[in-house]
Amino acid sequence: MNKHCCGIVINDKVINIVLKVYSNQNLLIVTHLNKPGPLLLVTRESFQNGFNENNSVFTIKALFGHVESEVCAAARYIAEHVNIDKPLLLSLALEDYKLKTLEAVVAALVIGPPSSGKTTYCNAMSKFLESLGRKVAIINIDPANENMEYTPAVDISELVKHEDIMEEYGSGPNGALLYCMEYLETHVSWLIARVLNLKDHYLIFDCPGQVELYTHHKSVSKIVEKLSENLIKLCSVHLVESHHCSDPGKFLSSLLLCTTVMLRIGLPHVNVMTKFDEMKKYSEHLPFNIDFYTEVLDLKYLLEQLDDDPFTARYKKLNAALVSIIENYSLVSFIPLDISNEELLLKVKNAVDKANGYVFGGNEPQDVQTLLACAVGATSATERVSSLDEYV
Ligand SMILES: Nc1nc2c(ncn2[C@@H]2O[C@H](COP(=O)(O)OP(=O)(O)OP(=O)(O)O)[C@@H](O)[C@H]2O)c(=O)[nH]1
Ligand SMILES: [Mg+2]
């Protein structure tokens, strides 16, 4: 057993380092504060199936204490730079985590029910961001993706093919899709290694539309967890179609879906109401103003609507209970989007950049005013979205 202790001075601050080498793991304590910080176990993943990539993939488990995402990022950074060959027990207590430590790939995970406009959004948003000078790559993790109008930088079909699974196991499209997502979960190092090769890009993940993947199946949340452990800073962008506003029951179910997905995936989250250009079609079925639906205002009015409808009136108590869950969490509001309207795309972009932190660390020049405005959710005069009146 070897043990090394030292104190070094960086920028006038003493940093104490203790390294203990055991036969099956190493212990490393790095502290600015004269006491150890939270304890993490960092292990390097071995690649499965012979995928040979340059980037290392790590699993980071908190063993003791509260671990912030920046501590996780710093742990991964250290593990990569000290080139660990056996598990590393790491305790970090730093005064600040410098930008270099936190350098991460920033990404948006585009999710939502079938046909809500995910693939269209990925294509349009990537073009829009490119027109602003951002380097964008789309990662397709929908094994049954049809009508891709973009060329993905990484495509799940290189790893596993949906039609092959259907043929091999005689399963239907949904079963094969779940199999593919579970396969991706077990081979997530394949995905991470490829994504880390795109470090200078902003990433958009195009995901499948099966809602069970986001409400109770575990693969997507496990994949997200692994990506987050490996310097990929994600937020989820959840798309819901605007036609759900035309029926109080459908609107309630959308609110419930959004709340469940937000709690289940556990990422910073932006809800987007898509196909706003189609809102006019339902305008006679909209008893409330648009902001009632986008801001999710007082839901007692929605409850009244549900109680007036002979079909949903039968479930009075259930409706009231569901509404109270949504109101108690109070997490859901929507940003409207019509894919052909650049002003609305800009509004969604700003919300997503704030959620995944791109605005604070991206490659685009940001002045202090833009940063502060973004942080408090304000929009500048040039960014202000024109009225939504044209949509009703
Ligand atoms: N009118 C209108 N149509 C849209 C908009 N966004 C998407 N669509 C249409 O909605 C349909 C479904 O869009 P997709 O992008 O394939 O939806 P998706 O969520 O990727 O679908 P799945 O991957 O099958 O779950 C397509 O016909 C799109 O052209 C929009 O803003 N307005
Ligand atoms: Mg799609």
Automatic annotation (TrEMBL):
Assigned protein family: Belongs to the GPN-loop GTPase family.
Cytoplasm found in the keyword field: no
Record function comment: Small GTPase required for proper localization of RNA polymerase II and III (RNAPII and RNAPIII). May act at an RNAP assembly step prior to nuclear import.
Any GO BP: proteasome assembly
Lineage, top ranks: Eukaryota, Metazoa, Ecdysozoa, Arthropoda, Hexapoda
UniProt cross-references to Pfam families, sorted A to Z: ATP_bind_1 (PF03029), PAC3 (PF10178)
Subunit and interaction comment: Heterodimers with GPN1 or GPN3. Binds to RNA polymerase II (RNAPII).
Name of protein: GPN-loop GTPase 2
Keyword GTP-binding annotated: yes
CDD domains: GPN2
GO MF annotations in UniProt: GTP binding; GTPase activity
Top-rank lineage group of the source organism: Eukaryota
One GO CC annotation: cytoplasm
Organism: Ooceraea biroi
UniProt keyword terms in alphabetical order: GTP-binding, Hydrolase, Nucleotide-binding
